[in-house]
Specification:
It holds the Pfam family DUF4260. This protein is mainly alpha-helical. The chain has five helices and three strands, in the order H-H-H-H-H-E-E-E.
Length: 130
């Protein structure tokens, strides 16, 4: 039987891998901002909504496990990409704008080293310890 060894949050991504993931986040953020600009989105709306995913931190009021789950729902690429695909398929301009703002937020977070959270605590992320 194969055994899996648990890798601690602080050792999950080290050195070059973490740098590649951070660069990837920076590229996603830059691309999202460029797409938003190309679509002619309102920069006032962008400024008002760019930090909206951080509301998901409030999940930590219910403890680390729930907090990590809620935070990760708001900081995974799955949500904004799904909305973006739907927006593209249906010519839903507002959805396209929301999707790119959300992607920009996640990309900026990842570029700064804020990754998806482990249930062990807010500071334990897939990019290492914050």
């Amino acid at each position: 039987m194969t055994q899996f060894r648990h890798i601690s949050a602080e050792h999950s991504t080290l050195g070059t891998i973490a740098q590649v993931l951070r660069l990837e986040g920076l590229i996603i953020a830059a691309a999202a901002i460029a797409f938003y600009w190309q679509m002619g989105g309102s920069w006032l709306i962008f400024a008002l909504l760019i930090l909206m995913p951080d509301v998901m931190m409030s999940g930590y009021l219910a403890g680390n496990r729930i907090g990590a789950l809620v935070y990760n729902l708001g900081h995974s690429y799955i949500g904004p990409v799904a909305i973006g695909v739907l927006a593209f398929a249906t010519n839903w301009t507002v959805g396209a704008h929301l999707s790119t703002i959300w992607l920009a937020h996640i990309g900026m977070d990842r570029a700064l080293g804020y990754g998806l959270k482990y249930a062990t605590g807010f500071d334990d992320t897939h990019l290492g310890r914050v």
